Amino acid sequence: MMFRKHLSAQSWRTVGAVLLLLSHYVGPGSSFMVVVDEPAVTPAGSIIFHAAMTDDGGQNGRQWTYVWSSTSPETTRSFFHLSRDGSVRLKRSPISRPCSDWPLRIEAYDPSVRTGVTRVSLPLTVRFKSCGNQLMDGHRRQRVDHSVRLTTILPDWAGREVDDDRLFNEICLRRSELIVPKLDAYLPESVRRYCRTDSWTSSTSNRAVESSGVDLVSTESECRPGRTGNAHLHYRLNCSSPIGNGVVEAQREMDVTARLDPPPPPDILHRSGHRQRRQTAADASFSFEQPVYVASVPEERDRGLQVISLAVRNPPPIGVMYSMVAVLDARSQKLFSIDGQTGSITTSARLDRESMDVHYLRVTATEMVAGAEGSGGANRPQPRSATATVQINVEDVNDFPPTFEQANYETAIKESASIGTAVLTVRAKDQDAGANADVHYSIVNPFGANEAFRIDAKTGVISTRLALDRETNDQYNLTIQAVDQGPVQERQSATASVHVQIGDENDNYPQFSERTYTVEVAENVNWAENPIVARIRATDADVGPNAILRYSLIGGNTQGHFVIDSLSGDVAVVQPLDFETVRSYRLVIRAQDGGNPSRSNTTQLLVNVRDVNDNAPRFYTSLFQESVIENVPIGHSIVRVQAYDADDADNALISYRIVPLAIMTPTGNQQTDEDQLPFGIDPDTGWIVTVRDLDREENHHHEFEVLATDGGGKTATARVVLQIQDQNDNDPVFWPKIYDAVVGEDATPGTPVLTVTATDRDENPRLQYSIVGGNVRGRFSVSSQNGQGLISVAQPLDYKQEKRFVLTVQASDSGGRSDTATVYLNVSDANTHAPAFEAAPYSATVFEDAPIGTTVLIVAASDGDVGDNARITYGLSGELVPEFSIQPATGAIITTKPLDRERTSGYLLTITARDNGNPPLSDTTDVEISLADVNDNPPVFQQTTYTANVPEDALIGTSVLQVTATDADQGFNGRVRYVLLDSDANASPFTLDATSGILRTNKLLDRESTAKYDLLVQAIDRGTPELSGAASVIVIIDDVNDSPPSFNIPPSSDRVRLFIQENSPVGSKVGDILARDPDEGVNAVVQYSIIGGPDAEAFTLVPRPESGSAELLTRIDLDYESARKRYELLVRAASPPLRTDVIVEVNVVDVNDNVPVLNDFRLVLNNFRNYFPLGPVARVPVFDADVNDQLHYRVVSGNSADLIHLNETSGYITLSSNLNTNVPISAAMEISVSDLSFLSFLFKSNVRQQ
Hints:
Helix content: under 10%
Structural class: mainly beta
Strand content: 35-45%
Radius of gyration: 63 Å
Shape: elongated
């Protein structure tokens, strides 16, 4: 391809136009050729070619660096200059051999690329117009590589480890996977301006170029050994001439190298056009000690600071001249200088690491040749030279203070936030590096109210340290300081203010102005006008809706007499009041705020109803009846006649008076005079009293009325009936007057002896009997039963003390009248002395390991009788105690079974001593036997297995659980200490308190490392010998949300890669997005969302909670043959507040959805003598948009003479030897092309030989 410099030099400098021509002698694979006009037309400095490239998206966004390749001859480079923007300028025209082809190669690279095309190599040939189209001589037609070469870096996921090698040594690609997108974007600008590409083919197996996007893809899934892979491509350029010379075509080549690691930087020694000659064997000794030197220098030092000194091996006696040029960045040239004599590099200015942290310098050492000056001609000796690269790393000094993202922060937080709630995260950045950039945060004013907050020194997270209360402090102003961690004397800091507004939470109850309200309302109030009787007021310390109050009646208003205004709190009467029905109302009033949830408070309103006189007196009963004894004194109160009035105060004051009834007397006259009655009435109290003596024989029945009058003149009456009762005026009389009886001294108390009887002629005499004489020591008692007196034994009798009793018995009525009788009682003799224990009660102590037969104690009893009545036999009585027995004659208590204090710590025996009298008498006593402890029981835990839960973020020293063991022994034998077995006190995550048995954390826990601990604890007593018991402790670590989700991707990859076939319907599943959270429970629930990425709108996520994953679904149609084969979006997996973001890469997989396309074509062959072609002469020009299709070719008809041979898989056509003749031959054939998925298609082809 030729580029002709056609416009004038001035217009070329302005627009940089080129003429694209296809020379007839430029064969396939030739480099891009620039034809330059004569020097008079194209002066020095003219732009002759633009090598600038775009990025994958067709934009000039990449920072390409353009340099001459080391394969470009130095002589050629001396005529041309390569600019930073990729433009090639003419420096000077060649003086000799102007018709030579001047081959060049331009290297473009972008070292910032980590994945994708990072290096492009472009071939270029310059020819001057004066040469025309004449062929070059053999020297000038040197063989040069004319293909465009691309180097791309594959992502880590394309590599695979084999043979346990820690490095990736295989490249693995999937079918339809994109390798390099938009290959035509890497052609130079001068080509892209006038040319388009088509007919891309690959001569490398399993590699193809998709035509619509011009993307290099893999046609099969495979793994290839090695860390690099190559693809050789062919394409066709169709170029239009800017001066209207039509369209020309040319076949081109491109080599693509895919690598798993970045390539080494290109040789950039020739970027500035310095001359360099090949190093001969003689020059080998003249070289630097090492090819690359690395030095470090601190920033912000004064100029003149020495960095490094370089020296060559075997310097010549005359000396060496050192020079230096900046590599990669021209700024380095101004910052350093080199001593030409010594090779010492020093700083020329202050260095700033933040502007540029590394510099690359190319140092050249050139020997000084004797006689070089003044000697001319070809005999002047060429000086030797050597080069080395110097990498200078700029060390950081703490010259930048931290800088907050904002000078003033504002945030808000609810007052109900729990302690430890994150309020705000402040961020400060420091342009320094290392410890100088490590920022720690603190609160400058943490005192007073600001003690409620704290800040994490590392993260800058401000959180609450104390409970907040908006009603106390509604805002806080914090001053946050960020201090870097440079040397103490050099540390720098910055401050920022944080304003925290406390949001109201409905945490205050409404408060009433009074604890209880009291009002008085007349019962005849005009309720129809709804008069206001009380005003209730309450306040709420909250603000906003939380302080808006609504009033309501919630109690005491069962009949709806009152209503309350919900807004003002005014209480009004809405129904009539009645003092006599309800004298007061205790209303419960609620004030409720508008918070959510709301809070309320209640108060009481006491409404007292004021009385008016609207009720007459009323007696409690209309008839009062009472009895009175005939001999009561004058003024005796008989009965109270009482009336009541529903009114109050004076309206309820009642006075009473007697109103006699008109009755007929025995003489037939009516008696109506009040003075004739023997009764009167107290006008205030209503008590009826006697006013003269009563005589039952005169009149035993009286009846009259009582009139009650209230303070308002209203009256009521009631009838009173009084009965006169008889008086007791007769004495009781015994008959007979003397009684005799005999009783044995062994009669028990309560034994009846005899009955005495008295009578009384009065009505209902109700006689009571008593012993009024002769009852020595109270041995007897008398009781009244059915009007008679029953004499019984009250105390035990003793024949030796009293043998006879003479009792005087008295009978008395209720009126105090009485009579007496004499009773003679004789006592008969009996066995009266029982045995008695001498030292009761008894107690003794015996060791629990005492052998059987051990005498514990001897008991003894005495009897005051003689003979058999005094002979005592001992025995055990009460509850059976098999461990002991007693000797009947001696009273010795001995052991009969082994003892166990832990089972029974003591025994209470009941011992009986019985004499041999008739009947026998006995005595009992208790013997308390205590068992002394011996250490025969090990400690026993309350549980054989303890289980406890502790959160994994528990602080060191947190109490986990308490184990408790008991020892049935006593004293030191039962005192227990605890130890944790099989654990190093320093290494164990837990420690056990020896005294309390409390298990505490000894180290920070991590559930994700260890979710459960199985511990063994031991309890040891302090007896001799020591005994112990053990129990297991299971500590389950409860999860805390401290681990962010992690996506299920290989460690070497930074993204999730998914594949989907093209033409899948919208809504099709691309794949599952799965992230694992090492936490558990709700902390392990992962929430998925699409948060960004260039193709975020093309997909949607559907959570699948049952599997913990999310399905990625399509929202657009996908077409592999379009320009997009790969989509990227950013997916977030969150377990609030933790989260992880990952790039999801969706690759479209090709399917066979396009038919091969082939038009009729003509093949014309010219046969020259002795030049008959033996290899392929053409290829069937079929086009199939599916790059993965395997096409099959066959001749259907017209080739019966076997004039051609058609390769069934490649489509290449070779000629039969039958065509090697000088006779013109013409044939029409039909060729079928099939991709195995669609039907074969027939195409006509004409083959003609001339």
